[in-house]
Amino acid sequence: MVARMARTIRLSSAFERAVAERQRHSTTPLWQEIGVHRTTLHRVRTGETEPSTAFIAGALRAFAPMRFEDLFESVEQAEQ
Question: Mind listing the domains of the chain with CATH numbers?
Answer without folding.
Answer: 5-78 (1.10.260)
